[in-house]
Write a structure and sequence with these properties.
2 domains; 60s Ribosomal Protein L30, Chain: A; 7-stranded mixed sheet; 334 residues; 8 helices; 13 strands; Phosphoribosyl-aminoimidazole Synthetase, Chain A, domain 2; alpha+beta; single chain
Amino acid sequence: MNDVITLAHGSGGRQTSELIAEIFKKNLGNEFFTADDAAVLPRPDGKIAMSTDGFIVSPWNYPGGNIGRLAICGTVNDIACMGAKPLYITCSYVIEEGFPISDLELIVKTMGETAREAGVYIVAGDTKVAGKGQVDKIFITTAGVGIIDDGVATSGRFAKPGDKIIVTGDVGRHGTAILLARDEYGIEADVTSDCAPLWEPVRKVLEVCPEIHVIRDATRGGVGTVLYEIADEAGVGIKINSKEVPVAPEVRGVTGLLGLEPLYLACEGRMVMMCPADKADAVVEALKGTKYTEGAKIIGEVTDTEVGRVVMTTEVGGQTYLPKPGNELLPRIC
């Protein structure tokens, strides 16, 4: 096989077959993985959740992950946010001519490892090769399917006044890691992405609070954007305490230096949850006992005042509006 991707790898001929066998099947193969035009899968009972997403992160490799781990985690987490157990994923790749085969194998190997960690099957896919300069190295598009247990229903529109607001860990880590990986500011800091599959924490939460109202993945736009989206969707107000919002010291240092708000930086392993107040402590304890969510905290509550706004109590005890999300701070973070 060549050392780099060529246009012939996307032609459908011998080199395409070699690429599928030696890179994709070797690293992603499972009992449902197919070489046919579509995967044939067992039909689940009950309701399903389905999502699709695209990943064009730059750089494709960064501290704490790469575009392959990101693609699986992003898809798994979108499904899990609906209270659904992720089952199957399909993946489509658009690869730039000249992309090193060894880098592609690293990405695909990471996808396989992450899928197995998440307990999800990659069942089908597609590969296209674009000419030099038509794609920035590699783009990945996924679709995911999961099954929802009876009685579980989550949505941003279900937020209710009195609900407690929980974040599952420190915020702004992924966006900061990507910013530093681009090396545009000459800042050195030990920041790794929070990228992680989160179905297991969600499963634990559903055991103690099956009636949880909102689970939202705080990816592009971060926690702040999620809070504004939910305030608009449910017609409620949001009140948070800035002192309770967990931010890692290294992230706070970088964002403080650059004048960025951690609440508006992307997370890829953090969720925002809203649940009845009498279940909030149990939800937090369930999260703290689960991998990737040990830093869960209650940061505020849903209100019936200041509808559509996010009010933040400052560290000195005053109150201010969290600015509405505006310009894109960090393009190409997912």
